[in-house]
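Per reviewer request, we include the raw input and output of the structure prediction for the construct analysed in the revised manuscript.
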Amino acid sequence: MKLIYEKLEAWQHSVDFANHVITLLGQHIPGRQSRNIIERAEMSSANIAVAIARAKCSRSRDDIIRQLYLSRRSLYETMTLLEIFRRNKWISDDQFADVKTGSKKITSSLVNMMRNINLNTVLNVG
């Protein structure tokens, strides 16, 4: 039996994305001094899916929207950290582009979820 949030496309994409980021960074640890920033990127990538799951179990529309924005914030944080890794040549341009493609899927799914919530609110009022 699947949990309710596991059916969400955004959650599925974000779990795949986090696994991809964690695997990628596990292969490219340049030095001990970089470990904190790598851990931060791993954590922020996992937080994307966590916030989506929290949104699904939220009771109010405002809390759902807040969690979806937190998810998007974690996505942007992850991509910013990966850009730093790319510029330091810790990951290649191709690896970054591959991860960026995954981030676009998540962004699209999050936008669709937010639109649906807003549309449902408008339809329920009238």
